[in-house]
Amino acid sequence: MAKKAYFEPPDVKVDFPALERTLLEYWYQKGIVKKYLEKNKNSKKYFSFLDGPITANNPMGIHHAWGRTYKDLWQRFKNMQGFKQRFQNGFDCQGLWVEVEVEKELGLKSKKDIENLVEGNLKESIAKFIELCKGRVRRFAGIQTEQSKRLGYFMDWDHSYYTLSDENNYMIWHFLKKCHEKGLIYKGHDSVPWCPRCGTAISQHEMLTEDYKEATHDSVYVQYPIVGRKNEYLLVWTTTPWTLPGNVAVAIAADRDYVVAGGEVKGNTYYLNEYAAKRLNLKIEKKIKGKELVGLKYISPFDGLSGIKKALGKYEHEVVATDEKILPVSEEEGTGLVHVAPGAGSEDYKLGKKLDLPVIELIDEEAAYISDLGEFSGKNAKKHPEIILDYLKENPEYLFDIVPYTHRYPACWRCKTELVWRVVDEWYIAMEPLREPLKKVTQKINWLPKFGLKREIDWLDNMHDWLISKKRYWGLALPIWECSQCGHFEVIGGKDELREKALEGWEKFDGNSPHRPWVDEVKIKCEKCGKKMQRIPDVGNPWLDAGIVPFSTVSTDNKSEPLYWKDKGEWEKWYPADFITESFPGQFKNWFYSLLAMSTVLENSEPFKTVLGFATLLGEDGRPMHKSWGNSIEFNEGADKIGVDVMRWMYVRQDPSLNLLFGYKVADETRR
Ligand SMILES: [Zn+2]
Ligand SMILES: [Zn+2]
Predict the structure, then answer these.
(1) Class assignment of domain 16-178+543-671?
(2) Ligand whose nearest atom lies closest to the CA of 490
(3) How far does the centroid of ligand 2 lie from the alpha carbon of residue 193, in Å?
(4) Which CATH number is 211-420's, of 2.160.10.10, 3.10.450.350, 3.90.740.10, 3.20.20.140?
(5) Which of 382, 388, 425, 515 could form a disulfide with 241 if both were Cys (CB 3.0 to 4.6 A apart)?
(6) Helix or strand run (H / E) with residue 428
(7) Confidence label for 414 from pLDDT (cuts 50, 70 and 90)
(8) How far is the CA of 529 from the centre of ligand 2 (A)?
(9) Which value does ipTM take for this structure?
(10) Do residues 379 and 368 lie in contact, with contact meaning Cβ atoms separated by under 8 Å?
(11) Contact 318, 249 (CB under 8 A)
(12) Is the pLDDT confidence value at 626 over 90?
């Protein structure tokens, strides 16, 4: 006979979600949330929580609810302890992520489509596009607000901050002006990663490991005939054949061993390293030192194209000794002889600069070959790599072999298009003078878990100058006015300064937000040559928007002028923030970094005292949530099926340093 249990098992089928909805309604109707928010408004004790803005571009995800649960938990705890708080939520509003979604909605394919939204009228087109971006942000900020309330997250929901606000944009102007006063702002001519669909540079900060995708490309072994040596070739390998017309040099490691080897064709001799010779089944004849190759001249199959002739001038292709710190030569991959195209690679460009090599520019904004490149001109280098391969097949004296090659290749973080490298003018903040001050500031912060400190320092040790410009539309209007006559540029620090310096166009701009196209109406006078200066058309890196919020968003009532300008003494009670919490992956290069950089420049102090980092939310099968894998759960669906109390319990009992596996099975167990 089975024994009867002492207690009936709890009824796990109670409709928690329905109970929650009733309760939430009651809380808001009876003003309980308001009472909660105002409980300590006269307290002398402050607890400053700073919200990392959520991108208002899509409905909130189930992973956002994890972070928002921590945010709520900390503030509730401090509220019970009697601390005065701001309870301010933030929305991140500007940048490429919004633009790309609006483009998708409208079915736009390129920047040309955006610029022709109102046919034949560039300014009206941009104005319309900007309005659509603002509209999308408003829509999703509203949706995310409702979802957050549904989560039971108590905040001052009527006064969230928006990074598109005038205060936020002008505060960044102020920051950039300070940078300029320290001599940190410069226009760089450099080879940068570039998205051919978005038509914009992608900064080092934006290239996260997850933006590298596995891709198979045709790699090529090219044989370059050596000038004055019959049947002798340099054997060079590249995974990006589209860059071959841009070749100017072959780099080798001068102090390493190379070999002279014979191939299948009788009498042909190749120079390469031993490792490659064995892999390619070449017959090694003798060993030589790398430095014996330096100075050899060779011929490229693309030398006949007029654009290349012009770029090379009197220069002849040459073997050069690499600088391992700039362009390391791999022993195992390739042949030990590296194709150098300064117009199509960052390291190549740097090495070329050091060795004074010519730069051959190859492609335009959309990765189409530019004019003067003969049969290639106008064709897309990235979409049609076969045009180069076919050309080599037609000129077999230069082709050794074509081999498919699978590697991790960087893609645009926003639209997933594979990146290319292009030489362009972009604007930078020089980070070298800030590296040590930033590291000092970083060490003052309490990182939870502890390894966060090391991760941040690692990034600061490796960061390049900060590429802050984007040739796009919806974003911070970089406050840089440039003289086309003499090249002088000026950085404007705020609206008042712009009004004072405006030579013309103020009346067209006044009354609009400081965005394209309106702010571009304002012209100022060049103090060097007296000519008119125009704002550069570029918009800013979106992490500037999120990094400035300790300065731009703190106000008496979450809705008026920043205290940083109005009452610095009061502002200092909220700064540095006592606490922030965000998912660790990615933020070391992004939000944490931009907060640190901007606070170091403006106040030389840490922007926050403690950061709680947490890991990544995955599906319950341990894989990233993905609609096509069937393990993805929308926030609304989760809240309706599981109930937010159960979800919040799942979040808070999790070790934040470990990935959280989330799904209905786990939820069912939790509910018991
Ligand atoms: Zn893109
Ligand atoms: Zn000038």
Answers:
(1) alpha beta
(2) 2
(3) 31
(4) 3.90.740.10
(5) 388
(6) strand 420-429
(7) confident
(8) 4
(9) 0.94
(10) yes
(11) yes
(12) no
